[in-house]
Design a protein that fits this description.
Blueprint: H1 3-19, H2 63-69, E1 80-88, E2 98-103, H3 125-139, E3 141-144, E4 150-156, E5 161-166, E6 170-174, E7 179-180, E8 185-201, E9 211-217, E10 224-228, E11 234-238, E12 242-249, E13 255-256, E14 260-263, E15 273-276, E16 278-279, E17 282-288, E18 292-293, E19 298-304, H4 314-317, E20 325-328, E21 336-340, E22 345-353, E23 356-365, E24 369-375, E25 384-390, E26 402-409, E27 416-417, E28 421-425, E29 428-432, E30 443-450, E31 454-460, E32 467-471, E33 476-482, E34 494-498, E35 501-503, E36 510-516, E37 519-528, E38 534-544, E39 547-553, E40 558-564, E41 571-575, E42 582-584, E43 586-588, E44 591-598, E45 600-606, E46 614-619, E47 623-626, E48 634-639, H5 645-648, E49 656-660, E50 663-664, H6 668-676, E51 684-690, E52 693-699, H7 701-704, H8 707-710, E53 712-717
Parallel strand pairs: 1-8, 8-15, 17-24, 25-32, 33-39, 40-47
Antiparallel strand pairs: 1-4, 2-3, 2-5, 5-7, 6-8, 8-11, 9-10, 9-12, 12-13, 12-14, 13-16, 17-21, 18-28, 19-20, 19-22, 22-23, 25-29, 26-27, 26-30, 28-29, 30-31, 33-36, 34-35, 34-37, 37-38, 40-44, 41-42, 41-45, 43-44, 45-46, 48-49, 48-53, 49-50, 49-51, 51-52
Helix pairs in contact: 1-2, 1-3
Length: about 725
């Protein structure tokens, strides 16, 4: 066994026992707490299974045995380093700072962020999580800063890393975010703090296992939060200010202490503050669903009068009013929820999903936690569409191998969930008919997912269809090669997506999607920045049949943009050819850089001085520019659907709107104000510049504000 597995063994055995009892249930792998006296660093990446083929079939699958025999991959090609510096608020370098870089993907070639990973059918969930944690630990690297405040963390894989900094007596924050790839430079700013010791006690005077400490300056109460445990009771507090400190605890944060005012200029680190937890005024509840696969749902509560209207459908349309309508989401993976800090009185509580009130109850809030148990009834045959799912050989799949949920997409706008899909056994599911207020027209569809056969989407008419049969075909496998990947600017920064699956290519630019349902699919290639955002650079539509299909993606050329603007400058760039694409710059000597931009038109703005205006750019190769902003004194037209309001009014892609109702546009804020005061249902007169000509166009601006019926949008631009 090599040196790395030996060192890894001591780390692995500590968590192996913890996970031994969790082989049947999925849960997050434990991460070490932050060093004492320092704020919590970036949240660890969510645990996910390892790729296929990692575990020999004859290996003993107990956690301890698995940890002893585990060997991390010996990655030698492409190792790099993340460099940077640490300064205090006055700009002086900070030495003696510990820098920690933890790989996000743990050297996993598949899976991006929280996207679907390639599973290992022979590996239980808890062991997959253990393997993922071991990989993260094996790839973690540390370094320290010298007297000049500089650091270099080496031996890193070509993965996104979470980079954190720790030093007693300082709170250290990155200027541009915690995420970075090898080759990037990260700068931390340290703020001197003193360490406040908190003595948190529960209602029975015993300390909780874990709590959250909220802290903020005085009446403004700009809250910051820190994790507290009995082993790590200290939190950083700025010197010279008055703060309010409060502890919150409980699975659903149903306990809290009274706020304690503290003058940090005279406080002594040796004097602990005592925070006593009490039940918060609110509703503490549970939700029970029928068997099936729950869709997205939320809890809504409305304060009502004793003699008022208690109709639960009010929760669907009642406008938010402070102190009356409250919302919350359930605790992940459970049916538990808590609505805190409610005023005393009668409250109407309901489960809402897809425009449906699934269950409701009346709860009286006085002092402490008011309990409630909500039960979602099984949908009757008249209230739901029955879905029969079959495998390719005509047999019903296992109930846990398939999930079904319905959606409703209006003629314009975003889709909404169709409600709970309840499994009745034998491959049968019931999907409630969406009952959205004011819904007319639109498209109803079912999304059926299978672990073995991919996913299928079926459109249906809920008024004419009582039962739908969905039969899967034998799955397709897509093998993709990214041409010219090795040694290109795309290497280590490529992400490919097919439907909801996302993968990273290996060192040779190859990857596999499996399983996929036969039919038409789109392959999308994205390029990631070192730290911020990603852009779509290639897309191809293909038709898959049963079996393996091989495809090659030829990515376009990518270019680098260097903006000269002085040390520490930060910029954002917006694409005019790809909707919603906004990228943030990376630090670079003498300014900032964008590392992977495809050919096209962009708008460059300063993050620190947006009011200065913007600079239009056309990227056709590597460029170096000096930031020369111009006022955003126009709106640029983008047409996605010529049948929308903008296209039907006669506007074309690239038109510039220079005036609204006779008022000339001078900046982006004024343009937004002119749009907001336009009267709904009444056309506004736009002055439009098109290829040197000036023309007048009338359009309902308030209706065109919604991208759906507008068929495009109007973006701030320069003339």
């Amino acid at each position: 066994m090599g040196a790395r597995p030996v060192i890894l063994l001591s780390l692995a055995l500590g968590i192996a026992g913890f996970l031994a009892g969790r082989l049947a249930a999925r849960g997050g792998a434990a991460e070490p707490p932050p060093p004492a006296g320092n704020p919590a660093g970036p949240a660890p990446a969510p645990a996910r299974p390892a790729p296929e083929g990692a575990i020999p079939p004859d290996r003993d699958l107990t956690p301890v045995r698995f940890a002893r025999t585990f060997e991390a991959p010996r990655t030698t090609a492409g190792l790099g380093q993340i460099t940077g510096r640490v300064r205090d608020e006055a700009g002086a370098p900070l030495g003696g700072v510990t820098i920690v870089a933890v790989p996000r993907g743990g050297w996993l070639p598949s899976g991006v962020g929280t996207g679907p990973p390639i599973g290992d059918p022979g590996l239980p969930d808890a062991l997959a999580e253990l393997r993922y944690t071991l990989l993260r630990r094996a790839g973690t690297r540390r370094a320290g800063t010298g007297d000049d405040g500089r650091f270099a963390v080496g031996g890193l894989s070509q993965d996104v890393h979470d980079v954190s900094a720790y030093k007693r007596g300082f709170e250290l924050r990155p200027m541009g975010g915690h995420e970075a790839r090898p080759g990037a430079e990260v700068e931390f700013i340290g703020r001197r703090v003193f360490l406040l010791t908190c003595d948190v006690r529960g209602p029975s005077d015993a300390p909780p296992e874990r709590a959250r400490i909220d802290i903020g300056p005085g009446a403004r109460y700009v809250r910051r939060s820190f994790v507290w445990t009995p082993a790590h009771p200290r939190i950083p507090v700025d010197r010279g200010i008055t703060v309010e400190v409060r502890a919150v605890a409980g699975w659903d944060e149903e306990f809290a202490s009274d706020p304690l005012t503290l003058d940090s200029s005279t406080a002594d680190e040796r004097d602990p503050v005592v925070l006593v937890l009490k039940p918060r005024h609110g509703i503490l509840g549970t939700v029970t669903f029928p068997p099936g696969d729950p869709v997205n749902w939320s809890i809504r509560a409305l304060r009502v009068r004793e003699d008022g209207n208690h109709d639960p459908t009010r929760l669907l349309s009642e406008r938010h009013a402070e102190g009356r309508l409250r919302r919350c989401s359930p605790r992940a993976g459970t049916g538990a929820f808590f609505l805190p800090d409610l005023a005393p009185g009668l409250w109407l509580v309901a489960i809402v999903a897809g425009g449906n009130v699934l269950a409701s109850a009346e709860v009286r809030v006085a002092e402490g936690n008011a309990p409630v148990a909500l039960v979602v009834p099984f949908p009757s045959a008249g209230e739901a569409v029955t879905v029969r799912v079959l495998t390719p050989d005509g047999r019903p799949p296992g109930d846990h191998d398939v999930s079904v949920h319905g959606t409703w997409r209006p003629e314009s706008g975003c889709e909404a969930s169709g409600g709970q899909a309840a499994a009745t056994g034998g491959g049968l599911f019931r999907v409630p008919r969406p009952a959205l207020p004011g819904a007319a027209g639109g498209t109803y569809s079912l999304l059926v997912r299978s672990r073995a056969y991919g996913e299928k989407t079926v459109e249906y008419d809920p008024d004419a269809t009582g039962e739908i049969t969905v039969r899967f075909d034998e799955p397709a496998v897509l093998a993709v090669r990214v041409a010219g990947y090795a040694g290109s600017r795309l290497e280590g920064a490529a992400v490919l997506a097919v439907g909801r699956q996302e993968r990273r290519p290996d060192a040779a630019g190859r990857l596999t999607f499996d399983p996929l349902a036969p039919g038409e699919h789109s392959i999308v290639l994205y390029a990631e920045g070192n730290r911020h955002g990603r852009s779509e650079i290639a897309r191809r539509t293909i038709r898959l049949t049963t079996g393996t299909t091989e495809e090659t993606i030829d990515p376009p050329a990518l270019f680098e943009l260097l903006v000269e603007a002085g040390e520490g400058a930060a910029f954002r760039i917006e694409s005019l050819t790809e909707r919603f694409l906004v990228l943030l710059s990376e630090p670079a000597p003498g300014g900032a850089a964008f590392l992977r931009l495809a050919r096209g038109d962009y708008l460059l703005t300063s993050q620190s001085a947006v009011s200065q205006g913007a600079m239009p750019l056309r990227i056709e190769g590597d460029m170096m520019v000096r930031f020369d902003p111009r006022p955003l004194n126009a709106l640029r037209v983008r047409i996605d659907d010529p049948r929308g309001l903008l296209g039907a009014a006669g506007l074309l892609n690239g038109d510039l709107v220079t005036a609204i109702d006779g008022t000339e546009i001078t900046d982006a804020a004024q343009a937004a104000a002119l749009r907001s005061i336009a009267r709904e249902g009444e056309p506004s007169r736009l002055t439009v510049s098109r290829r040197g000509r000036t023309l007048a166009v009338s359009v309902d601006l308030r209706a065109a504000w919604d991208r759906g019926p507008a068929g495009g949008d109007l973006r701030p631009w320069v003339r």
